[in-house]
Amino acid sequence: MKNRTLYAVLMFVCIVGFWLFENFYTPATYSKPNGPETNAVEANLLPRSTTGEIVEHSFYTLSYSEPHEQAEWVAYTLKQEHLTYDDRERPYFIEDPKVSTKSADWRNYRGSGYDRGHLLPAGDRRFSEQAYNETFYTSNISPQNKDFNAGIWNRLEQQVRYWCKKEGELFVVTGGVLEEGLPQIGDEDVDVPRAYYKIVMKGSGDNTKVLAFLIPAEESQKPLQDFLVSVDEVEKRTGIDFFEKQPDAWQSRIESKVDAEGWKF
């Protein structure tokens, strides 16, 4: 009888301990303020922030939208040397300590039926433990349908890696289309975008080439080319000026058309 009681008490303690760990433990930060590793995004390529909440991490930059509890855009560079297959231990999702209002808690996603979909893919940052871990800030995730996240969105991420491997350095900016009246999840009312965009740039000067994708947040077997739009179209849908620091002539030439020449699908 004593053994049974002791066993029951130990089981109860273990269950309570696990519940407390699961619900209240999170690491403080993944950032290293004085770390030697950095991969800053060129300021002249950054989009305009409609919220004024720009956050710079060592390996990407974002603009956080508190009303939507996620980033309106995440911008980063992808280089050939980033494309490694290092085996990384998957860390916890944690709130972004650099967001002044704090980013949404990951527990908002629990039981919602939606994936915690990365905007900057963790797979693009396996070359460094810090770079990899930084992608697990909740400022870098958005609620995504599971089939969309594992399907066409993943196909697009793999396509971008393929281009980087073949062409060299790319600049990427991505996010959900944040608008009024979106469905919400969790206690903090995290908005669920109905569509996502990704803008990919290669080259520089007169040799600059840009592709923009606008994809409904549902799985599709259609070719990625079917979701190509102009940068102007993405700007219209999101209200974001993506290349505001570029000359007007450059913007007119690059942003107004869809030009897939020189991009191998």
UniProtKB/TrEMBL annotation:
ENPP1-3/EXOG-like endonuclease/phosphodiesterase domain sequence ranges: 57-249
InterPro entries found in the cross-reference section: DNA/RNA_endonuclease_AS, DNA/RNA_non-sp_Endonuclease_sf, Endo_G_ENPP1-like_dom, ENPP1-3/EXOG-like_nuc-like, His-Me_finger_sf, Non-specific_endonuclease
Cofactor(s) for this UniProt protein: Mg(2+)
UniProt cross-references to SMART domains, sorted A to Z: Endonuclease_NS, NUC
Record EC number: 3.1.30.-
GO MF entries: endonuclease activity
Keywords attached to this entry: Endonuclease, Hydrolase, Magnesium, Membrane, Metal-binding, Nuclease, Transmembrane, Transmembrane helix
Transmembrane regions listed in the UniProt entry: 6-25
Domain DNA/RNA non-specific endonuclease/pyrophosphatase/phosphodiesterase residue range list: 56-249
Xref: Pfam families: Endonuclease_NS
Family named by the database record: Belongs to the DNA/RNA non-specific endonuclease family.
Name used for this protein in its record: Endonuclease
Organism of derivation: Flagellimonas aurea
